Amino acid sequence: MRHLFKPKCLAGVAALFIGAACADAHDFWVNADSLRPEPGQTVAVQIAGGHHFPQSELILQGRLIREFTVTRHDGTTTPIALNPAGKTHESSLTIDTPGVYLLNLVIQRPQKKEPESLCRAILIPAGGDDQPGAYARNSSLEIVPGKALSQLASGDELPLELRRDGKPMATQFTVCAEKGKPQWIRSTADAPAVLQVKSGTKYLVTAIDGGQTVSLVFLAGSP
Q1: In terms of pTM, does the model score above 0.90?
Q2: Domains in the chain, ordered, with CATH?
Q3: CA 190 to CA 83: how far, in whole Å?
Q4: Terminal-residue alpha carbon distance, the chain
Q5: Per-block average pLDDT, block size 10, for the chain (223 residues)?
Q6: What residues contact 85, with CB distance under 8 A and at least 6 apart?
């Protein structure tokens, strides 16, 4: 993905490539200050990008944000208004109902017919009903975990699928634990990739298919 960000300076951009990077060049993701909020809590949500998740080093041009929405457990989807804030776009979301929340970002150039990047974060209120079936919208390109995220313990294996319009696909995932080094796992159309998780850790998972990048941020277990 090229020229989707505004570099602060050339020296700063060059510095991004020093050390083991957790994301590919110009990758973006959706994040929140808490992915296990209490019911009734208002959480800060961000659009961020860079190479060292969760630190944001790239500024996404506002004109490339086609939509930023939240999908609740009942299937209703509503837009989220954004404000530029330094190297992120920020907003807030009040957790007013139980169940799974999906934060969805679509990045698309105005002159293009298809998105270039599809980003998602899974937010599960504390004590809420956590059903893996709620992690997927079964449309477009998405990364779908195969177990209830809030129930994961350290050492558990988490199946991950890349789906297009609900159908599993073969891919290679790049997985970055928060402030950690990247690892790579593979899936096929018949078998998901398997990630061994550490409870209380936030993860960024990315994949590419047909020129489109997809990312997913989630928390394994409890904070």
Answers
A1: no
A2: 10-209 (2.60.40.1930)
A3: 42
A4: 32
A5: 40 35 71 94 94 88 94 92 86 91 96 94 90 93 97 97 97 93 96 97 96 96 90
A6: 46
